[in-house]
């Protein structure tokens, strides 16, 4: 009985990895074993950094709110404490957007919590 190797599936699997490695430098995009290692590592970074991205954006929002709040004579912690105390249901993303793009609206919120 002849040996069955399922070359179609093997080729498809290798081709998929090499397609994901397009644009990598040198043998990282040409040699399957090296490309496989590089692609796996890249996928690990992608998984990890989807979480890190959320952290970094929250930090950016906090910096923007802090800068805008200080223009109106409040620190970030005072502002957020008073926003929470007045039950204003705006999250940091929305507050940062208001601070950047709609300063009059942000000033109205600051006046409301003072």
TrEMBL record:
SUPFAM superfamilies: Ribosomal protein L20 (SSF74731)
GO cellular component: ribosome
Keywords from the named record: Ribonucleoprotein, Ribosomal protein, RNA-binding, rRNA-binding
Coiled-coil annotated spans: none
Similarity-based family: Belongs to the bacterial ribosomal protein bL20 family.
PANTHER family assigned to the protein according to its UniProt record, in alphabetical order: 39S RIBOSOMAL PROTEIN L20
Name by which UniProt lists this protein: Large ribosomal subunit protein bL20
Organism this protein belongs to: Pedobacter segetis
Phylogenetic lineage: Bacteria, Pseudomonadati, Bacteroidota, Sphingobacteriia, Sphingobacteriales
């Amino acid at each position: 009985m002849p040996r069955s190797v399922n070359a179609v599936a093997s080729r498809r699997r290798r081709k998929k990895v090499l397609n994901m490695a397009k644009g990598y430098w040198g043998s990282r995009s040409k040699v399957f074993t090296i490309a496989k290692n590089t692609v796996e590592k890249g996928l690990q970074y992608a998984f990890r950094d989807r979480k890190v991205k959320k952290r970094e954006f929250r930090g950016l929002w906090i910096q923007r709110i802090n800068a805008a709040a200080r223009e109106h004579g409040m620190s970030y912690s005072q502002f957020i404490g008073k926003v929470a105390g007045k039950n204003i249901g705006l999250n940091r993303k929305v507050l940062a957007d208001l601070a950047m793009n709609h300063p009059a609206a942000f000033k109205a919120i600051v006046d409301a919590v003072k």
